[in-house]
Design brief:
Layout (H helix, E strand, L loop, with lengths): L1 H16 L13 H7 L5 E2 L11 H10 L8 H14 L7 E4 L1 H13 L4 E7 L6 H6 L2 E7 L8 H6 L5 E7 L11 H11 L4 E5 L21 E6 L12 E5 L1 H8 L11 H12 L1 H24 L4 E2 L5 E5 L7 H7 L2 E2 L3 E3 L4 E5 L3 H11 L1
Parallel strand pairs: 1-11, 3-4, 3-5, 5-6, 6-7
Antiparallel strand pairs: 2-8, 7-8, 9-10, 10-13, 12-13
Helix pairs in contact: 3-10, 4-10, 11-13
Length: about 375
């Protein structure tokens, strides 16, 4: 195991040195890895994973698909695309599968960088994928969030110029957990897409009551929606997501995939198909997340840690008034957290795990 980790570390650093992919993309041996090797039970509150998934239906479907894993995914992918299309009242031509929404975001970055120009994005948001866009020639223009950590849609719109190729909106936003008001977002998209393409990342939308914007793509060729099975469905490790867009846009994007819809495994597609049928699991996940999130926010605020109201399975909070070493407290209690996203105010984020995990998290901070 140790030799393999060393080899992975050396290989990863070599690839990073060539500039092929950023360092952050690799899981290089760390103190957290050493904890795992010692069989210490870690509490993972780092990556906004669903602690309850995959659902039993999904697990059984993936298990049952193992014998068919010697075959390519073509027939199953067609079936999944059909089911997703039905869910959103669209045609199969409106959809493109990817190995997680991460692949979709990268495809959009490449698609929109065919012509040099710029990319407009909020600061702070989920921006790891924008390395692809910048390496492809797009200049990133970061627009500060509002004081209450929401997208400043007016400022983003005013930043559009003749060279703008793409605007990215993560809704709800990661890491802040804030959401754009439906009417304001709809108005923004209607006007902004007259001038450029808009990518809306709906990775966490299922945790809210806000409807998807998927219905808009039937007429709007400049709107692209990214969705994933990683969060509410608990399939983060299975790597399966999809794009929703106008058929012409989907066709053009698919030309950037070596094998359109072919990057997802038979097991992943089987899990996704089963997940779409499991409304009970989704409802239970939302309920459990809401309860644990409410508890976490209340307890953090009792510790004088200011929190931003969240519409997701994570919470954004300020450590400005916390007197202890937050990350040392997590480390001592075998809890994996994230980082400081904004130095001013010392803003960080924590994933909402099970109620038991969140009680242990709060106990670690006291």
């Amino acid at each position: 195991m140790r030799n393999r980790r060393n080899w992975l570390k050396q290989t990863s650093l070599g690839i990073v040195g060539l500039g092929i992919i950023p360092l952050e993309g690799f899981a290089i041996s760390t103190k957290e890895d050493l904890l795992e090797e010692k069989n210490v039970s870690l509490i993972r509150l780092r990556s906004n994973e669903n602690p309850y998934g995959p659902s039993v239906l999904a697990r059984n479907a993936m298990r049952d698909s193992i014998p068919a894993s010697n075959r390519y995914n073509w027939d199953l992918s067609d079936e999944l695309i059909k089911k997703i299309a039905q869910k959103h009242n669209l045609t199969e031509q409106h959809l493109l599968l990817g190995a997680g929404s991460s692949e979709i975001l990268n495809l959009v970055a490449l698609y929109c960088s065919k012509k040099t120009g710029n990319l407009i994005i909020a600061e702070t948001t989920f921006d790891y994928w924008t390395v692809t866009a910048e390496n492809a020639g797009l200049k990133k223009i970061a627009i500060p969030l509002t004081a209450d950590k929401k997208h400043d849609l007016s400022a983003m719109f005013n930043a559009i110029d003749a060279d703008t190729r793409l605007i990215y909106i993560c809704n709800p936003n990661n890491p802040t957990g804030t959401i754009c008001a439906s009417e304001a977002l709809l108005t923004f998209i209607t006007e902004a897409t007259k001038r450029t393409k808009v990518l809306v990342d709906e990775a966490y939308l299922e945790y809210t009551d806000q409807p998807s914007l998927a219905n808009l793509v039937t007429e709007n060729k400049n709107l692209i929606i990214a969705k994933t099975f990683s969060k509410i469905y608990g399939l983060a490790g299975s790597r399966i997501g999809y794009a929703i867009a106008h058929p012409e846009t989907i066709m053009e994007m698919s030309q950037l995939q070596f094998s359109p819809n072919g990057s997802v495994s038979v097991m992943s597609v089987s899990g996704a198909l089963a997940s779409l049928k499991d409304d009970k699991f989704v409802a239970e996940t939302i309920l459990l997340n809401t309860e644990a999130r409410k508890y976490t926010i209340e307890q953090l605020e009792n510790l004088k840690i200011r929190c931003i109201p969240s519409h997701t399975n994570f919470v954004y909070f300020s450590l400005e008034n916390y007197n202890k070493d937050f990350f040392e407290q997590l480390k001592k209690n075998s809890i994996l957290g994230t980082k400081i996203y904004e130095e001013k105010g010392k803003w960080s984020r924590i994933t909402i795990g099970t109620m038991t995990e969140m009680k242990q998290f709060i106990k670690a901070l006291v």
